[in-house]
Amino acid sequence: QEVAILQLAVQQLQRTQADNDKKIKALERDKRAAEDKAVEAQKEIEKYKKIAATAHGAEQKTRELEKQLCEAQSRYDAAWDDPAGAAWTKQKYVYLKRALQELERPVRQTKGLTDKLTCSICKIRLWDHVLQP
After folding, report:
1. Number of domains in the chain
2. Whether the Cβ atoms of residue 55 and residue 105 lie closer than 8 Å to each other
3. What is d(CA 45, CA 25) in angstroms, rounded to the nearest whole number?
4. Helix and strand tally (H, E) in the chain?
5. Pick the residue with more confidence: 76 or 56?
6. Quick one: how far is CA 96 from the chain centroid?
7. Do 83 and 95 contact (CB within 8 A), yes or no?
8. How far apart are CA 115 and CA 117, in angstroms?
9. Considering the chain, what percentage of its residues have pLDDT values greater than 70?
10. Cα-flanking dihedrals φ and ψ of residue 78, to 5°?
11. Is-contact 65 99, C-beta < 8 A?
12. In terms of residue numbers, what domain contains 64?
């Protein structure tokens, strides 16, 4: 009878051990999945940081072009007093205006895209996240 009780106890311990092993494996799987998600999220953050840096560079270039555009506008306005310089000044003004519009486009698109997206980890807007992580 003692042998039967000991056998039942051993069987119970084996079942408990098997259940614990299953739980440990499930936890290890969950841990690996969480680590993979963290790596993916970090890659996503880095990607959007690069996008924000590009947009920031474009914004700086935009400011430079705006300054040049103002100068060209002033020269363009003044050129009407000097008909010989009017054609060149107008051409330069149009060129700068187009260049400025080309530079502003990716900034608007990038900000528009990241304004709609949220970080998968902390749930804030990605545009804010990449500028101030």
Report:
1. 1
2. no
3. 30
4. 3, 0
5. 56
6. 29
7. no
8. 6
9. 59
10. -75, -25
11. yes
12. 2-131
The torsion angles phi and psi of 33, rounded to 5 degrees, stand at -65, -40
Residue 93 carries which side chain, given as an amino acid letter? Y
Distances (CA, A) of 117 to 10, 14, 35, 123: 55, 50, 22, 9
In the chain, the N- to C-terminal Cα span, in Å, equals 68
Provide the 8-state DSSP code for 82.
-
Give the model's confidence band at 92: pLDDT under 50 very low, under 70 low, under 90 confident, else very high: low
Tokens of residue 123, six digits: 């749930």
For tokens 């084996």, the residue is 14
> What angle (nearest 5°) sits at the alpha carbon of residue 73, between those of residues 72 and 79?
85
Task: Check: CB of residue 75 under 8 Å from CB of residue 89.
Answer: yes
DSSP string covering 20-72: HHHHHHHHHHHHHHHHHHHHHHHHHHHHHHHHHHHHHHHHHHHHHHHHHHHHH
